[in-house]
Each structure stands twice: as structure tokens, then as C-alpha cells.
Amino acid sequence: MPRYDRFTEELLGFLLTRLDDESDLEHLVAHEPRRISAAYFEGGGGRAETRGVMFTGCAACSRIPPYTLFPTHGHITVPAWPCPPVRALALRFAGDPEYRDAWRPEVALFASGRLVHET
Ligand SMILES: [Zn+2]
Question: What is the pLDDT of residues 18-76, one digit of tens each?
């Protein structure tokens, strides 16, 4: 796998050293992190333009159809990695001293930075 930011690397490492079931590992590979770009519209002040943002998303959960243009950055309602299924996988090890609260399913985020469960 290519290298990602530290937060992503930490959770990947945590899971890879703890998951021992082949189907769990396959599940993780299906939901592996991927650099994804999303286009959104930025208007106001008489100017309007299309901008792009790169984020770490999930290979399975964060698919964006080609030519999608989100109305604003806040509307990028695509899960960021770790996606809810990966967070659910990690939750099994919630009692582990290295488990981090930032991995909890209830704090899953969209690429926009908003909480998935807020909507
Ligand atoms: Zn996923």
C-alpha cells in the first residue's frame, strides 16, 4: 500500500497487527484508503468557480461518479477514511490500550469535515 498521513498509517498498522482472520483482512483491503479528489462549486462575491479538494477516502465507500460537482465544500457528503465499516472493524479492539477515541464510529467524518451522524 502507498503511504498516507500519520492518522491513516496508525489505524492501518493497528488493524494489520491485530486482525488475524482472512475475511477480516479482505474486508479491510476492500475498504483501503485512497486519495480521492472532489470538485465543488464556490460562489459569492459575484464570482463563481469550480474548485477541487483532495482527501483520503475509502476505495469502497467514497466513490464519486465522474463529473460530480458538489454545490459547496460543506456538501461533500462522501465518507472520509476511516469509513464507518473500518471504524466498526476497529471497535472490536476498543479495550486495547492503543485504541484511539478518534476511531470510534460515532465520530466518522465526511470529506467536508462534518460528522456523518449529524445528518
Ligand atoms: Zn469503506
Answer: 999 999 999 999 999 999 999 999 887 778 899 999 999 999 999 999 999 999 999 99
* Cis check: omega of the bond before 105, within 30 degrees of 0: no
User: Please, are residues 28 and 18 in contact by the beta-carbon 8 Å criterion?
Assistant: no
**pLDDT greater than 70 at residue 119:** no
Ligand 1 center–CA 45 separation, angstroms? 37
Cα-to-centroid distance, 18 and ligand 1 (Å)? 19
Q: How far is the CA of 48 from the centre of ligand 1 (A)?
A: 32
CA of 15 from ligand 1 middle (Å) equals 14
User: Which DSSP symbol is given to 37?
Assistant: E
Q: What is the pTM of this model?
A: 0.89
**CA-to-CA dists, residue 12 to 38, 90, 104, angstroms:** 23, 10, 14
